[in-house]
Every structure is written in C-alpha cells, then in structure tokens.
Amino acid sequence: FASLDNKVSLCSDIWSDHWQSCSYMEITCYWIDNAWNIQKRLLAYRCFNDPHTAQNISHLMFIILEEYGLTSKIFSISFDNASANTCSIDELIRICQPSIGGKFFHIRCTCHFFNLCVQDGLRSLKTYIKPIRTAIHYLWTHPQVMKQWGRFCKANGMRAKQFARDVPTRWNSTYKLLLSTFEYKELLCGFFDQVVQSSSLYLYANQWNIYTTICEILKVFSDATDQLSGVYYPTCHLVATHLCNVVCIFCEHITSNEPPLIECIISMKTKWEKYFLNIPEIFLCAIVLDPRLKLDGLGELLTLYSDSLNPITDACPSSSMIISSVRHSLTEVYTEYNEKYGSQVATQTQQTTSSIITSRLTKAQNLIRDRTKHPRGSSSSNLELENYLTTTFDFSATDDEDTFDILRWWAQKKQVYPILSLMAKEILACPVSTVAVEQAFSMGGNTLDERRSTIRPENLEVQCLLNDWSRAASRTQDQDETNDDEDTEDTSETTTGGGGTSECD
C-alpha cells in the first residue's frame, strides 16, 4: 500500500460469534492495481467487544487504517444500513479527508436493500408459498417418505430430485426452492395425493402459475445480487442498470390479475422508493465512465427508471437536473485530481513522448522536449473531461455487458485520458455489496467451533487474513469455501433427511 498511487475502497461489518461471545470487525479493501486488475484483501478480523457506537466503530477503523498506512488513501466505504455504521461516517470523513468533501465516501450495501425489499414483498405471499414450503420440508425431515419419493419418481420414469431447502429468512433460498420444483410439479402433486394422502399436505398444479410469476420477480433480484457481489470485476457502473431492471419488473406486474401479487409489488415498490427514489450519484458517475454510455446513455437510463417507477411522490428530480448534477460532480473530481496529479501526469507523458521521439524523430527532439516540459493550460482546464464526453468511440458488436472489459478499455486509454483514467481507477473499484464481509465471517465461523472456541482473537485474525491473502494469489477469493445447505443437485441414490444420508431408491 505504501507504493500505491491511487486510493482504495473498503467494505466493513461487525459479526458476533456465539462460541466466544465476542464481536469481530471485518474490513476488506478493494483497489485497481497498475496492471488494471481489481485486487481484494482482508485487512482485519479484529476483536471488537466495545459498545457498537459510532465513536467506537470509527476509532477502531482508524487504528486499523493507520496500521496499513491507508488513512489518507480511502476513496469510499461500504456499510450495511446499521445506524451506528451510518453515524460513524462523519467522523471517518473528518479523519480520512476523502475526495470532494466525502460526497462519494459512504456507499450503502445495495444487496442489503434488495433483501429488505424482497422480504417485504414475500410477506404478502406467505399463504401461497406455504404449501410447497411445507411439502418439501416434510420430504427433508422424513427419510422413509423420501425413500417412497425416490421409488415414486423411478416408477414414473424420472430421476428423484433432492430439492433445495428453504430458509424463510433468506429469500434466495425460497427462489431456489421454487425453481427446483417446476420440472417435478406433476409428480409432486401426484405423490402427495396418492402416497402421502394428508389433507394438510396437498398440492395443486395450478399453484405453479403464481410460482412462475414469483420466480420472474425474484430472478431480477437474484441476477442483480449475483452480479453486484462479484470480486474480480467492477460493479459500481452496473448498479443503475440493475435498478432499472427491478423497476421494470414492478411496472410489468403491478397490473396483475392476482391480488396477492399486486399487494406484493406494492409492498416492494413502497420499500424501494424509500431507498432508491433517487439513485446514489456515485453509481451515476460510474455509468458516465462507461464509454458506451456516458451522459447520453445515463439520460436514457434515468428516463426509463423514472417512467417505470412512476413514483407516487413528486420528490424525484428531473433527468436533466440529475445529469447536470452528475456533470458538476465529475467536474469537481476532475479538477481536484488535476490539481493533485496534473504535474505528475505531465512528467510521465513527457517521458513517454521523449522516448518515442528519440527513436523516430531525433531532429525534432529538442523542440518536443521543450514543449512537454511546459504543458500549457492543463492545470485548470477540464478539456480532457469534455473531450471524453463529446468523443464518439467505436465498439465491436460483441461489446455487450457480458463481454465488454471496461478496465481494459481504460488501461488502453490512460495515455489519452491520464486524469480521467485515475478517476476511473478509484470510482470503478468501489464495492457496492458487503458480500465479501459475509464470506470473511463465514471463514471465521468455520475456524471457530466448539472444540476450538478458546482460540485467541488475534490468532483467529491471523488465520483469516492468511487464508484470504493466499487465495488472492490464485484469485479464488470469490469462491465460498463452505458447503451450501441449499444443494439442488439431482440425486437418485442418496438423500439427506436431517444432515445424514439415506437411500432414495
């Protein structure tokens, strides 16, 4: 970090361990290196038993940042929506002195808000989801019934399926459960009708009509959560697109013929407007740094967003006002970066230019060197920004969202846009989800168990950090080491009833 020229972004959270009755603060750092690759490192897994006040949170974060020499190199911090985390931001801004007064300093975890929104919507659908949830739970918890299910499937020419488990507090598990049943809906109905024969466990094929719509809605949130939780690619410029996808699905189903679905959408939309009536400006600036979109693309996205959301309140500003604000913020950042890095960039440009001229245009060498030693008008101008915003770039037809590498593009343009490329390095490195924090807590939870609950907190931190750093070398930090209980693999020979396995023939 001492040799790092650009700033870094952090995400952090606090976790309580039931084995030790101890709390831990986790801090993960993201940055884009000189080779234009995103890097991630776990900085701390620190015991934190003080009251979780804003003052104590900011104080411990300051201690950790000082250890790494990062106090003055923080661009943004991502938290969940806990009030103490939010309240600590003002003190952290005072300590870290981030760019443009900290306008982009605090990023709330986008996926956390997705979860709040979906949970509100699913409460309206409990009655409709309960039959399939109860039926699958019955299979999981009765090994003998699971054996009968295996034989029933085999008799009907199908391979028995081990369905996803549903955890009511985790909406993605409900989504996986519903998805895993579609291929088997007729068999499930027949099995519980002909074999189980319980009035409280009865399924109807037409129930999957509403399950189809529920899955269409949840898929938008699931896709957004999956992509925005990525580690080795930028996510900040993708947020607004996913927000548009969500409000479009609201618009599509708000006129449903199913009253429960309408109630679900209204509940989601109400929660959504509480948090995303106005899209955070950092995400909008990141869109402008996508050369395929820039301000024109941002304007189209904002129009789509506003038209689809159709907010009840008039508090949402017009697209033109938002674009003007985004342009102003980008100019502010550019001006600050130009003042800070302008002379350094000019020197680098001079060295690069001199090398080329020496080999190709030796007669003009002195003239070129003289001009590059004294750049004219660059210190206070935003011509680089204006040039970028007004230039039309050529892109391959294959440069869609899935294949376009925005970091490679900026790496190739850093000589043309030296200041803007520095801005892109820091804005595009911002994490928009705290999923990395959850993975770190998972590591800590796996290290601690009943037998090892006496491990010293500092030793636990060392184990977690070394684990993460070793995985960074192989770039496998995005792979969860834990086994997911929601395994949906087909299995015709084994099934688990309550943690063990039994035959399913």
What would your notes on this structure say?
This protein has 505 residues and is an alpha/beta fold. Helices cover 55% and strands 9% of the residues. It has 19 helices and 7 strands. The chain has helices at 54-68, 83-96, 110-123, 126-141, 143-155, 171-181, 185-196, 207-228, 239-253, 259-276, 281-288, 294-309, 319-360, 365-373, 383-390, 406-412, 418-427, 435-447, 457-473, and strands at residues 8-17, 22-32, 38-47, 74-79, 106-108, 494-495, 502-503. A 5-stranded mixed beta sheet has the order 3-2-1-4-5, sandwiched between helices. Strand 2 (22-32) and strand 3 form a beta hairpin. The protein is globular, with a radius of gyration of 27 Å.
What does the secondary structure layout of this molecule look like, with pairings?
Layout: E1 8-17, E2 22-32, E3 38-47, H1 54-68, E4 74-79, H2 83-96, E5 106-108, H3 110-123, H4 126-141, H5 143-155, H6 171-181, H7 185-196, H8 207-228, H9 239-253, H10 259-276, H11 281-288, H12 294-309, H13 319-360, H14 365-373, H15 383-390, H16 406-412, H17 418-427, H18 435-447, H19 457-473, E6 494-495, E7 502-503
Parallel strand pairs: 1-4, 4-5
Antiparallel strand pairs: 1-2, 2-3, 6-7
